[in-house]
Amino acid sequence: MTQTLPKSFGRKVTNWCPPTEDSYTQENSTTEQTSTANSSVCFSCNCSDTGYFGDICQFNVDDCVGDPCVNGGTCLDKVKGYICNCLPAYRGPNCETDIPDCDPSPCLYGSVCKERSKQEYYGQGDDEFVNFTFAGAAGYVCECALGVKGVNCSEDIDECEDPTNTPCQNGATCVNSFQNYTCACVPGYTGRHCEEEINECETLQPCKNGG
């Protein structure tokens, strides 16, 4: 049994003959065929699972169609596959995994670690989290606990550094300690900041004999 092949081509399995004005006749088969026209050879190209398509599998299938790379990753097409070039904050075959910059936390002394990749932190009035971008999503910000400062909250804040502006009142002396301070009160005052005046008549009762 024979069939006449027009000059038309498919994407997967293609019956192909050199283009001329004539059609070519080949016998039905899944193997290479020999036509009876002009002694030409006709054959079938099965492009399945090759990464290519076309009459003779000459075109590479673009595996980046559909944008498989997420979180701002860029797709590089390869034969039978693709590679995602991920931005610094992400990893994984499709850049689908957020790198955990806060696990373990680099922020010290009970400070809070916030990852720049977490979109819920943005738009809340924090100057460190204004506009989210995938390119700027790498890294973290430490929300330091009281008494410490610095990128990782490793530096002590000296509350007594400026003697004209200390938390201690009524002539008390400010004594700094790590992540804290104390106030050495002058006689007659008490309290965390020496803010309370002592009523000696009430507490000490210096007067004798009902005085």
UniProtKB/TrEMBL annotation:
One cellular component term from this protein's GO annotations in UniProt: plasma membrane
Biological process per Gene Ontology, one example term: establishment or maintenance of epithelial cell apical/basal polarity
Alphabetical list of PROSITE patterns matching this protein: ASX_HYDROXYL (PS00010), EGF_1 (PS00022), EGF_2 (PS01186), EGF_3 (PS50026), EGF_CA (PS01187)
Covalent S-S links between cysteines: C86-C95, C185-C194
One GO MF term attached to the UniProt entry: calcium ion binding
A UniProt-annotated Pfam family: EGF
InterPro entries xrefs: EGF (IPR000742), EGF-like_Ca-bd_dom (IPR001881), EGF-like_CS (IPR013032), EGF-type_Asp/Asn_hydroxyl_site (IPR000152), EGF_Ca-bd_CS (IPR018097), Notch_Cell-Fate_Det (IPR051022)
Domain EGF-like: 60-96, 156-195, 197-211
Protein name: Fibropellin-1
Species for this entry: Plakobranchus ocellatus
